[in-house]
Amino acid sequence: MIAFLRFLLLTGRWFALLGVGVIALFLLAAVCAPLFFSWEEATRVNLGDALAAPSAALPLGADEMGRSMVARLVWGARVSLLVAGLSVGVALIAGLVIGGLCGFYENRLTFVTMRAMDAIISFPRILVAIMLITILGPGIVSLTLAIAISSVPVFARLFRGPVLSLKKRDYVVAARSLGAGDGRLLFRHVMPNLTALIVVQGSISLAEAVLIASGLSFLGLGPQPPVPEWGAMIAQSRSHLMSTPHVVLAPGIALFVFVLALNLVGDGLRDFSDPRASGTGGR
Amino acid sequence: MTRQTGTLSLDRRALLGGAAGALLAPGVRAQRANDVLTFIEGSDFDTLDPAISRTRSAEILFYVMFNRLVRWTDTSLSAIGPDLAESWTISDDKLTWTFRLREGVRFHDGTAADAEAVKFCIDRLRDPAFGSPNRSLYTAITAVTVVDPRTIRFTTEQPHAGLLENLAESSASISSPTAIRRHGRNYGRNPVGSGPYKLEEWAPGERTVLTRAVPSARFRQIIYRPVPEGEARLIELEAGTADIATGIPPEATARVRANPRLKLEVIPSSFQVFFELNCARPPFNDVRVRRAIQFAVDREAIVQRILGGFGTVPDSFVAPGVQSYEPIGKHPYDPDRAKREIAAVFPGGFPEKIVMWTSSGRYLKDQQVAEAVQGYLNAIGLQTEFRAWEWASYQQTLYRRTPNVPGTGYGTNAAHMWVLGTSIPTADWRLSRRYQTGQSANILGYSDPRVDDLLNRARVTLDPAARLDLYHQANRLLWQDNPPNIPLYNQSQIIAMQRGISNFNAFAFEIPLLGEVSKS
């Protein structure tokens, strides 16, 4: 982490640094949400304040139900991060296992597995997710699962490629000839080389997962009210875009800034982990 | 040289003009074609067979595609007048109704719209094997007899006070028997009536086109398009690609009023939107809880803050505009009382989560209102679980009986309460359909012998005042003594249209009379 920050500083990647800052801010908000605002504040209906304009008590105004927009944004960050983080984590691990095994062993079973992955990947991810949620019913858990399952094939394919080539490297062959077993080869000699890939793809997938999660919530397939979720907040207040724009713009901007920050950090990470690209300086 | 430049600039101007023309073209075309009426609404329909439809948006089209035997003469439902029937008489024992049909009416496929056709359609509605969801409207009829091609006789076992009202329902639209026989189960996609317009094209989810079937019809074409978003409907009006749009969101009304090319009509609606309570499952199987929960919801705030004042707080079990409306008195907002009365039934609080379902976008601000209600229930200490549904799957799920559970008998048992609305203007159908014991649309499992008895008696009471009094009693029972739902608001119809549209009128049950509109 420190090394990454120093790298960004030294090579003058200010945008990526900004991204790190923004993500840290969102993380802080998400983790410490209960310290700033109670769950009550984010969910209690108070029609007296419906669509209130920004004020000292309600820094970003109130939504249609008279709930504080700031409180909902902060708790919404928690939901978004939780869903995105968990789903990417699950997908990453599943992708590593499938991709690693299918790359390391080449037989009929792994062939069929990879073709199945190809089949899933041929559908747009959001469609796969919608299909899964239709079966599971809307909610946070099924949203997380749906995004995870729909992104497993991406990871599996991505990780299988390097494994295919890595296992033929001389040092792996050498280790094998010294009598190392499959497990040792895979975990000691092959997998560690995937770290950079995991980190970069993880951060990019995180941005994608946030977008898909809010997209699905926009369609009403995410967490159900009163749970605040950015996409659902946009969906519900979108008819007020012309009359009281702040209720639509606030979650929209939050989403935009967060996804942008994730992408900027992803770019920085890519440069950091790929020594050949690091010489090119700022962007 | 100069000349060349001149030509060039002229060309450029022509080009610009052409481009501008192309940009404006759709709007210009929509306004110029005075013989095409484009009507946009929020929802599409699943069938165009009037006998089995229960979708209001389809009803709008039934009114111009079909004839019924009789019809309401005006939108205030003051009297019933002739349609296919030109006159009718009732026997002295009040058990036989004889209708004399108009001469020479033909369906769009050429079949004669005679007594045989009427018998065919009414018998089809009554046939239990056919299973029309509107069947119970017509079960009081025991026999339909063709006397001669222009005379038909309805026999009932008991005097039937609501017969004419029921025959004026759009489900009693008379279809061509030939078409029904030819298309069978597919008739819903190939409807044939005898009204001023006939179906030309139906692309589900996209558009339905009706064309002129008789020379006197005002428009060459009536185009119906479902546009789910209220905001999008308004944009279409602003762009001139539609003539009339219903269900304008309250927050957009200011924009309509500010636009010199558009106008706004706000028409009272007989739509009352409510949270229906599952009477077969705790806690709402206990009438004390159903009574207490009425005080938990601040309806005034809902109407003012969420509906922007476009609606009214219910003061009776039915909305104004319904036959049996009579103000009883609003339920006060008193959360402490609600809390106290529920605590008397469940001293430690109700232990489970209350599952609340709502449609999203079917009624004015339905999901938002449901969320507000969720807030009010949480405020009196009830735990809730919320789910917003898309209309088509919502309706299917609600009316699908939960397997292996006695439940409500006719609908889902998976939820404790769900948002629904009804716009039915006739007293009998409005109450008996949902709240009489054993009715197929009584998906909440409500049963009160007193209500059943009042409705049964009203049905055979031919004296209008006495009959109305029975409905008033039933309304009061359903409002105070034994409520089956939490009434939330009475809707208003917010309709925007081009300035050139005149003579626009709509029934309180949200059926605009498209055939009567004029456009200039």
TrEMBL record, chain A:
Source organism of this protein record: Neoroseomonas marina
Entries under InterPro entries matching the protein: BP-dependent_transpt_permease, MetI-like, MetI-like_sf
Key word Isomerase present: no
One GO term of the biological process aspect: protein transport
Protein name stated in the entry: ABC transporter permease
Record localization: Cell membrane
One cellular component (GO) term of this entry: plasma membrane
Keywords: Cell membrane, Membrane, Peptide transport, Protein transport, Transmembrane, Transmembrane helix, Transport
Family, as annotated: Belongs to the binding-protein-dependent transport system permease family.
Origin: domain of life: Bacteria
PROSITE patterns found in the cross-reference section: ABC_TM1
Residues of the ABC transmembrane type-1 domain: 77-266
Predominant location category: membrane
Membrane topology: Multi-pass membrane protein
UniProt keyword annotation of Transmembrane helix present: yes
Residue intervals passing through the bilayer: 12-37, 79-104, 194-221, 247-266
UniProt-listed SUPFAM superfamilies: MetI-like (SSF161098)
TrEMBL record, chain B:
Family designation: Belongs to the bacterial solute-binding protein 5 family.
Classification via InterPro entries: Peptide/Ni-bd, SBP_5, SBP_5_dom
Compartment(s) where it occurs, according to its Swiss-Prot or TrEMBL record: Periplasm
GO biological process: peptide transport
Spans traversing the lipid bilayer: none
Annotated organism of origin: Neoroseomonas marina
Domain Solute-binding protein family: 80-413
Highest taxon of the lineage: Bacteria
Database matches in SUPFAM superfamilies: Periplasmic binding protein-like II
Pfam families: SBP_bac_5
Gene Ontology CC terms: ATP-binding cassette (ABC) transporter complex; outer membrane-bounded periplasmic space
GO MF terms held by the record: peptide transmembrane transporter activity
Keyword Transport among record annotations: yes
The protein's name in its UniProt record: Glutathione ABC transporter substrate-binding protein
Keywords tagged on the record: Signal, Transport
